């Protein structure tokens, strides 16, 4: 028997007790761990259920590319079995679109390497399902390093709604942009106000109207289109629109572009509480409205002055206007017309005044007249009332009214009757005329007398057919000496009928008769052709023409004879002058005092006779002779002429004055002839001025011509002498000098002046002196 010591027993008891305690603790810990495990499994089951029912489904991508995907993801992708790796995300039966699969693979690789999260939309292949994939690195510790978690969400309905909203947003944006562009391009000012009525937006027309810098500047400064924002102003109009929710409109004046304009402002309330507005320029409309009103007043005033009665009915068939002749014609009183009577009442009133035709059935007659309002065109009829003929015109108005015009044609019908009688009188008058007369109208022969028919010898059938002017001229060709004159007659008629011009021509018939044809326009638009026999006059004119030619031949012979005699006289005159100068010079011995006086008298007479012969030669030889054309200083020519006649003036103690204005200048012409003109005028003036008289030579000019004036204070000339002052070889009797003279100076002056293209005039009266003016052109 083995004996155990007391200490060993105690130690074994302690060990046993420790083992019991350890087993008990282990049992307790196991039971507790089991309970915790059951609780964790419950939580996991609930989380799995929650995750399975979540709209977001998880897919785990391991580092080696293997996938762990839920069945819902597999169903969403339309795959029969879950995908094993990223490469199997697309196949012929389902999966993702190839492009989406490649993009997802690239995003997952980036997330695994760099831990970069991503979000992208993908589509299931062969369906309209849209999926949103949110990827990120898997939590550390829970999953192997390098894993990625992908959360798939079915966003098909959301994407459809987003697409719809995007399309709607695009459409609204397009419409908004178009509306904005339309508002900006609108020619009228437009604006938008916020709920506090402050300007928030204006267009370019608004900026231009208020002369602002740009829209931002106008909005910032709050520049209003219409001056004044108080009661009745633009803000008050906008406030009413905002508070009542109804559009408002008001006409207000504004200054635009420095001009006062009338604008109609329209304010439209918006659901946002703001107010949109625009302004329409109605200045021209107001002017047109005022002009239309004035036109209506003027038209009514004009209608009151017409002799015809006028009544106007509105679309309601009430009388809206009638003029004074209408009231007088139908005895209408203003008090009764002020109530705007209806059409039927007006007819009844006219019947009461006995101003309508007598009819058996007045109601039926009135009903027929009521149809005038709906007639397709104007209706015209005649009323005979108490011997008065009324022309009634009923004109339906476009707006449904009716315009009635009552014209009293009694006097017109009487005038027509009188006109018919006048036509008969005119026909009888034409037949009694000795001239051939015909009336052409509308291009045809309308009326003629027997003299006209006998003159031309046309058949009655031709004239009765009222031939046209061309046919008449064609028939007339064979009866004229020159057939082309028939066209002249046609032209005369056309000038009178169309151009309203009176023309005439001479016509010679083939038998030698002469007629003066004249076409006169008549007030009614026709043409009157008269033909007067002038055969006797032409015979007289031919005789006178022959006599005139004989006289002109005699005048040429006389002129040639005078010229020849003048040449012949110069030879003995030269001898007389030479011998007289020798006697006066003492070549034949010294002369006595009386002998010297006789010799001097001979020389003076020879000088005068030589001047007369020169004048005669100038008159007979210088007609049409060429002139020298050089610049001529008129003041120098006048001084030389005055110096030449100065001895004559001193001999009679005449004051010869020369007055130069400094404007005479020069003209183009023959210097000798121009000087002779002035000299002849001065000699004529000195010869006609008594001793101690006064002769004035005056020169002035303008841009186009120069003027020479010679005047004297002599006894003047009679009217007969003035009339023949410029006639060649005219005997003026005892002239201004008291002695008989041929008067060659003035005719020569006239001849020389006209050769230079100028003019000469003489003014004189007995006892008033004489004045001669000459105008010479510069050219």
From TrEMBL:
Top enzyme class: transferase
- Listed SMART domains: HATPase_c (SM00387), HisKA (SM00388)
Kinase found in the keyword field: yes
Keywords per UniProt: Kinase, Phosphoprotein, Transferase
EC number(s) in its UniProt entry?
2.7.13.3
**Which InterPro entries does UniProt cross-reference here?**
HATPase_C_sf (IPR036890), HATPase_dom (IPR003594), His_kinase_dom (IPR005467), HisK_dim/P_dom (IPR003661), HisK_dim/P_sf (IPR036097), PAS-like_dom_sf (IPR035965), Sig_transdc_His_kin-like_C (IPR004358)
Q: Which residues form the Histidine kinase domain?
A: 564-779
- What's the catalysed reaction? ATP + protein L-histidine = ADP + protein N-phospho-L-histidine
Q: Which PANTHER family match?
A: OSMOSENSING HISTIDINE PROTEIN KINASE SLN1, TWO-COMPONENT HISTIDINE PROTEIN KINASE
Protein name from the UniProt record? histidine kinase
Which organism is this protein's natural source? Sphingomonas canadensis
């Amino acid at each position: 028997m083995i004996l155990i010591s007391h200490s060993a027993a105690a130690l074994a008891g302690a060990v046993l007790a420790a083992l019991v305690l350890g087993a008990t603790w282990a049992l307790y810990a196991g039971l507790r761990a089991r309970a915790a495990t059951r609780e964790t499994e419950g939580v996991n089951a609930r989380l799995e259920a929650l995750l399975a029912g979540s709209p977001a489904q998880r897919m785990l991508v391991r580092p080696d590319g293997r996938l762990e995907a839920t069945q819902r993801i597999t169903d969403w992708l339309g795959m029969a079995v879950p995908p094993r790796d990223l490469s199997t995300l697309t196949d012929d039966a389902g999966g993702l679109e190839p492009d989406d699969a490649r993009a997802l693979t690239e995003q997952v690789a980036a997330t695994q390497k760099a831990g970069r999260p991503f979000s992208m939309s993908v589509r299931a292949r062969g369906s309209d399902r849209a999926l949103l994939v949110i990827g990120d690195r898997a939590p550390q510790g829970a999953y192997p390093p390098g894993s990625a978690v992908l959360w798939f969400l079915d966003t098909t309905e959301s994407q459809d709604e987003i697409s719809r909203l995007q399309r709607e947003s695009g459409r609204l944006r397009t419409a908004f942009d178009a509306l904005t562009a339309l508002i900006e391009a609108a020619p009228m000012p437009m604006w938008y106000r916020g709920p506090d009525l402050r300007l928030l937006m204006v267009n370019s027309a608004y900026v231009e109207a208020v002369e602002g810098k740009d829209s931002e500047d106008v909005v910032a400064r709050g520049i209003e289109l219409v001056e004044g924002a108080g009661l009745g102003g633009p803000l008050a109009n906008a406030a009413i629109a905002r508070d009542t929710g109804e559009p408002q409109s008001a006409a207000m004046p504004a200054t635009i572009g420095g001009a006062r304009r009338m604008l109609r402002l329209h304010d439209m309330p918006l659901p946002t509480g703001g107010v949109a507005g625009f302004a329409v320029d109605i200045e021209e409309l107001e002017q047109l409205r005022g002009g239309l009103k004035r036109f209506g007043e003027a038209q009514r005033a004009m209608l009151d002055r017409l002799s015809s009665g006028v009544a106007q009915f509105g679309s309601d068939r009430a009388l809206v206007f009638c003029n004074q002749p209408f009231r007088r014609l139908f005895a209408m009183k203003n008090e009764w017309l002020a109530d705007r009577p209806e059409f039927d009442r007006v007819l009844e009133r006219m019947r009461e005044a006995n101003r309508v035709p007598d009819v058996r059935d007045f109601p039926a007659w009135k009903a027929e007249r009521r149809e005038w309002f709906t007639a397709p065109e104007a209706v015209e009829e005649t009323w005979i009332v108490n011997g008065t003929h009324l022309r009634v015109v009923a004109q339906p108005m476009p707006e449904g009214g009716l315009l009635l015009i009552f014209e009293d044609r009694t006097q017109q019908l009487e005038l027509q009757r009188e006109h018919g009688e006048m036509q008969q009188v005119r026909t009888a008058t034409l037949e009694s005329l000795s001239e051939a007369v015909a009336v052409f109208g509308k291009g045809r022969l309308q009326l003629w007398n027997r003299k006209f028919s006998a003159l031309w010898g046309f058949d009655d059938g031709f004239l009765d057919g009222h031939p046209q002017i061309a046919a008449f001229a064609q028939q007339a060709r064979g009866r004229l000496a020159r057939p082309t004159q028939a066209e002249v007659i046609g032209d005369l008629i056309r000038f009178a009928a169309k151009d309203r011009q009176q023309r005439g021509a001479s016509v010679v018939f083939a038998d030698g008769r002469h007629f003066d044809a004249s076409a006169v326009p008549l007030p009614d638009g026709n043409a009157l052709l008269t033909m007067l026999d002038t055969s006797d006059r032409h015979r007289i004119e031919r005789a006178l023409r022959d006599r005139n030619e004989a006289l002109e031949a005699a005048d040429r012979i006389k002129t040639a004879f005078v010229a020849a005699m003048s040449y012949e006289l110069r030879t003995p005159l030269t001898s007389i002058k030479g011998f007289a100068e020798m006697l006066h010079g003492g070549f034949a011995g010294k002369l006595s005092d009386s002998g010297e006086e006789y010799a001097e008298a001979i020389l003076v007479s020879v000088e005068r006779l030589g001047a007369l012969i020169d004048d005669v030669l100038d008159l007979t030889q210088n007609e049409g002779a060429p002139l020298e054309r050089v610049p001529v200083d008129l003041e120098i020519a006048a001084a030389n002429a005055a110096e030449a006649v100065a001895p004559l003036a001193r001999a009679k103690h005449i004051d010869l004055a020369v007055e130069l204005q400094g404007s005479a200048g020069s003209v183009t012409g023959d210097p000798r002839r121009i000087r002779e003109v002035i000299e002849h005028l001065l000699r004529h003036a000195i010869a006609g001025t008594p001793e101690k008289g006064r002769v004035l030579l005056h020169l002035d000019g303008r841009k186009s011509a120069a003027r020479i004036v010679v005047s004297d204070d002599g006894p003047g000339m009679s009217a007969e002498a003035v009339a023949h002052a410029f006639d060649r070889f005219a005997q003026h009797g005892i002239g201004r000098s008291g002695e008989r003279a041929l008067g060659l100076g003035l005719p020569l002056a006239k001849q020389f002046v006209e050769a230079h293209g100028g003019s000469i005039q003489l003014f004189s009266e007995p006892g008033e002196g004489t004045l001669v003016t000459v105008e010479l052109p510069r050219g």
